[in-house]
Design a protein that fits this description.
A: mainly alpha, about 75% helix, B: 3 strands
């Protein structure tokens, strides 16, 4: 069953959330009533938003859920921004895996939001964050090691090819020294009359 | 049959994801003010999340069973350039065509 209704509950959802947003941003009742969207809705519905009406609205489940969502979204966007900045400064933005980046942002978000899992102390959380950062570094190191290995293999392959070409070259030089020019000229004379 | 509320919910998911530079999980997106405003049930939200994934408008992070996604490169580009979701009938209805 729904709780007691206040005047705000008769306004459309878009206007109700506009009121909650203005409240979250610190606007007073008078400023909220002066907002063009709110004023238009009051004029249309006839349900006025007095100070007591707004106070009751701020205690509603809907408003509490909205304010909690703003706080959580703030923590999540801040964590995202910090992750980007940290990885950017470390020069690892392009090289860390998406999973490592997501996990790191999640840890930072939990720290900002002060949300700890049951039975977890702040020390545990810091340890997890450190482990998460180590994963990022490990991913980066592993990627670099793979790159070095690939380059080494490429260099070995090219060296091998150079050695083979040098061998072929020496063989050709040897053969060129064995050619009897007079015999070639006689043969050409015989075949094409040159 | 998709109705206007569903289109709004799909666009709200995109607006929420647009606030993050990389992947984000459905639980966090569900708490975004743009999504909260739609008063959708968790089931509705999951269905639309999965639809957007299936259409390639958002892309999942492997290993999280589709619960962590980000905007696809094309969607991100459109939203960065226009500030709005792509002009797609699945996001705006057939009126957009």
């Amino acid at each position: 069953m729904g709780g007691p209704r206040n005047n705000l509950s008769w306004h459309p959802a878009a206007v109700r959330y506009r009121v909650y947003a203005l409240h979250y941003e610190g606007y007073s009742a008078a400023q909220i009533n002066a907002d063009p969207e709110v004023a238009a809705s009051v004029a249309k519905t006839g349900y006025r938003l007095h100070g007591n009406t707004l106070k009751a609205a701020y205690r509603s489940d809907e408003c509490r859920r909205y304010l909690a969502s703003r706080e959580q979204t703030y923590a999540a966007t801040e964590a995202d921004r910090i992750t980007q900045a940290v990885l950017g400064e470390a020069g690892a933005l392009a090289s860390v895996t998406d999973v490592a980046r997501y996990e790191l942002a999640k840890e930072i978000r939990a720290l900002i939001g002060g949300v700890l899992d049951e039975g977890e102390t702040p020390a545990d959380r810091v340890e997890r964050l450190t482990r998460s950062l180590a994963t990022v570094s490990r991913d980066e190191a592993a990627k670099m090691a793979r790159l070095v290995e690939e380059r080494d293999a490429e260099i070995a392959r090219l060296n091998d090819r150079i050695a083979r070409l040098q061998e072929d070259n020496s063989r050709l030089r040897e053969l060129a020294g064995q050619v009897d020019s007079a015999a070639v000229a006689d043969e050409m004379d015989k075949r094409v009359g040159v | 049959m998709a109705n206007k509320r569903m289109f709004r919910l799909r666009r709200a998911i995109l607006a929420a994801l647009c606030d993050y530079s990389s992947h984000q999980d459905l639980d966090t997106v569900a708490m975004h003010p743009a999504v909260i405003r739609e008063n959708s049930s968790p089931e509705e939200l999951r269905v639309e999340w999965e639809n957007l994934t299936a259409w390639g408008i958002i892309e999942p992070l492997p290993g999280y069973q589709g619960a962590v996604c980000r905007l696809s490169a094309a969607t991100r580009q459109t939203m960065d350039e226009t500030g709005n979701a792509p002009r797609d009938a699945r996001l705006w209805g057939h009126e957009v065509l």
